[in-house]
Design a protein that fits this description.
Layout (H helix, E strand, L loop, with lengths): L3 E8 L1 H5 L3 H10 L3 E8 L3 H7 L9 H8 L4 E9 L1 H9 L12 H5 L8 E3 L3 H12 L2
Helix pairs in contact: 3-4
Bound molecules: uridine-5'-diphosphate and magnesium ion.
The site of uridine-5'-diphosphate (UDP) has 9 residues, from loops.
Length: 136
């Protein structure tokens, strides 16, 4: 049985800065994801703080928010069968050093903080994150 889901993907500043956004979008498409909506934006630090609020207590929170707001990003709604998990698998581990071959983070990630992409970690969070960027 099919289980079509939508998830939120972000191509982070380190990747957009290196002009990797089109290449990464092609990887999603090749792997069967439909890009339902997309936009290239730059967000304020205050918006990044809201987006990453679950990480508020973590030691990397301040730097993470400053980083997400540091340059243009591409935010996308991706759709596919089991999209949330499929996207997490295609992204690879948070630390590019631990990411498997043929994952986006293995291929493009620079470090644990500059790891090129974000992806929702659950269906509930996917809905919240899609609303965050695309609810008008
Ligand atoms: N992060 C970091 N240092 C860490 C852990 C995470 O800078 O020690 C950053 C990294 O950019 C990561 C983001 O915080 O993508 C969110 O962390 P999470 O644990 O949710 O990882 P993800 O879901 O992105 O794999
Ligand atoms: Mg996460």
């Amino acid at each position: 049985m099919s289980n079509i889901e939508q998830t939120l993907s972000i191509i982070k500043p380190d990747a957009v800065e290196r002009n990797l956004d089109n290449e990464i979008k092609e990887i999603f498409k090749k792997n069967g994801f439909k890009i339902v909506q997309e936009k290239k934006i730059q967000i304020e630090k205050s918006e990044a703080e809201k987006f990453y609020k679950v990480h508020e207590t973590k030691p990397f929170y301040t730097d993470l928010c400053a980083y997400l707001a540091s340059g243009p990003i591409v935010v996308m709604i991706l759709e596919k069968d089991n999209a949330v998990l499929a996207n997490r698998e295609l992204m690879g581990a948070t630390n590019p050093k631990d990411a498997k071959e043929n994952t986006i983070r293995k291929k493009y990630g620079i470090s644990i903080d500059k790891n090129s992409v974000h992806g929702s970690d659950s269906l509930d969070n996917a809905k919240i994150e899609i609303d965050f960027f695309f609810k008008d």
